[in-house]
Amino acid sequence: MDHDRREFLKTTTGVLTGVVLAGSPLALIAPGRAWAVDMKAFTSAGGSVLMAVARTIAPHDKLDDAAYAMVIQAVDVDSAKDENLRKMMKDGIARLGADFAKAQESERVIALKKIESSGFFQAMRLKTLQVLYATPMAYAYFGYEGEAFSKGGYMLRGFNDLRWLPEVPPEDSGPIPM
Amino acid sequence: MSLADIIAAAHGAFDVAWNNEMPNFDFKDNSVVVIIGSGAGGGTLAHELTRRGIKVVLLEAGKRQSLDTFSQVPGEAFGQLTWLDTRTQSGDWGVTRDFPTLPVWHCKTVGGTTVHWTASCPRLQPWELRAKSTYGNIAGTSLIDWPIPYEELEKYYATAERRLGVTRRNGMPGLPASNNFKVMYAGAKRVGYKQVHTGHLAINSKSYDGRGFCIQQGFCVQGCKMGAKWSTLYTEISDAEMTGNLDLRIESTATRIDHGPDGRVNAVIYRDGRAQEQRQKARIVCVAGNAIETARLLLLSDSSKYPRGLANSSDQIGRNYCHQITGFVWGIFDKPVYSWRGATLAGVIEDEAINDPRRGFVGGYRIELVTLDLPTLPLVGIPYGWGRDFASIMENYRNLAGMFINGEDLPRSENRITLNSKVKDTFGLPVPNVHVDEHANDRALRKHAQKQMSAIYEAVGAKRIILGPTPPATHNTCTARMSADPRDGVTNAWGQTHDIGNLFISDGSVLSTPGSANPTLTIVALVLRQAEYIAQQMKAGTV
Lengths: 178, 543
What we know:
The complex is a heterodimer. By secondary structure, chain A is mostly helical. Chain A has helices spanning about 5-10, 25-30, 45-55, 65-80, 85-95, 105-115, 120-130, 135-140, and strands at about 15-20, 35-40. Chain A has a two-stranded antiparallel sheet with strand order 1-2. The longest helix of chain A is centred in the middle third of the chain and has 17 residues, at about 65-80. Chain B has 2 domains: about 5-165 and about 215-320 and about 475-540, FAD/NAD(P)-binding domain; about 165-200 and about 325-405 and about 440-470, Cholesterol Oxidase, domain 2 (2-Layer Sandwich). Helices cover about 25% and strands about 15% of the residues of chain B. Chain B starts with a helix and ends with a helix.
């Protein structure tokens, strides 16, 4: 067993925890108010840095931390499986430093701009975009109603309910079936 | 009426035909026609030949999905349907920068790209078939005229439109206007456009051909769980299965087409689902693997007799790759649009689909309605970005309206598919490289379209306009084009290769130029015509 692997097993277990904000969209769909995400590749402090990176990339102030935690969970799962990725992520965390997680947003933006072309930042940006907006929390937050087949489509659920512009005349539109 | 009743009424009559008694033709049966690819071209051709009593082996690299198995989780559906085998790319088009690992976006599944298409079915116009004559000699292009007169193509368009159940044709009503279309329509009218409607779509606005009607799911790209959208998966292919003449082999990836000493093709080598190599003899081979894989397969099939690849004496295989000028334009409004509700592409402005060089470019474009689901929007629809500005666009998702450019790009000899010998696929074969350098005309067309589309949204009070990137190409065409002169292309007017009489090309690769129409209807029309020709030639014993 090489050194890195031993170190990985010994020290790099962390946890991200949070509480769902009362009245947030997530409160309506999450079963309990407290949540926790176990990490295999990162320490709790490292996870907090990654959380701050994800929030700086996609800052939605009223979107629950739980949605961002799903991004970090996905990064953690990938990193636990891939030693090169794990090293890249840990190096990125180290470079930003533990204070990054507590820094003002303007300072975080400056720090990330400096490393924008790095593999670490680009991997975090892509993963944030891929995971964050596919979470149920994001669907609720952005008002996206998603899959419609099981609910009969949007035909009777507002596909044409816009009223702030004129209706389209019949010759350029078409009849609603049934 | 309850929602459950709506589903039952719209969906109930429809059942996917699935003939488990499908024949298994012998590998050594050299009387069969082998078709490679089951999309708009290959799937339709399979039906057209089998219904005439011709035995067909249909090879499809992907798996078979159904209305029940289509995932409605966008990321999962993307993985379920998309051709994700490695491709490389080069050139100066934006896709190289923005989507380095995905130059093109088409499908690897039974039904091919007709599973995820948005079903837009405009016709090419007469002058678009005479691109070279109409546009003249433009430096840096390899324009030609089509070898088919428009009047000839028109007959097959009419048949194709009936077959697909295209809206606003043959008494099929248009789809009803969605919220997203209302924004586009009001803006377009204020700007002065005249030809604005909910489009010619192969989506049932009423029950037709045993398939249900559109219930405005907004999940056209993930596979229509209503079957309201035409796809060869559950129309042409299931019809072909019912004839008893189709042998559909899924997860079967063609790797080579063999020929005999006489130069005629005689077998297709492929890997089956267990990666075992198989060899199917054939009387005729029809290649319909999408313009990228079609060109690649012909190049991979080189031999001492054909050192540049099959049917490539003209050195035109893979060249003249066209993809149409595409891109998103988004408007953010101060009131909700909920653009995701409803058929994705149900709206078009056709006024700019003209050739008017005074605009600063030749060829035309359509402005089409579009939207993207929430998970896909930040990945495909809006420019690279992060931080507050990026987030502010996403924050306005409810209030976002979207449109899409669909314009003609000009063929260039060096825009081409080649084999990248440095990168190999899982079978050890070189992957295709897609090279695109934009022509000045392409850029001028896009700029004009973006300006007009911005004006449309500004006319109805947009707070902000966002010009999106060029997404991975889905309208891949012209890499084995039809030409009157064999030196200019790869096939004659029936998709029969100039070099080899029993080798046909049956997909968008044969388009001589792309025009400004979404290509599927034209592919189907050409294949209907090709099927007649193949049947006649077989009967006459000339192939």
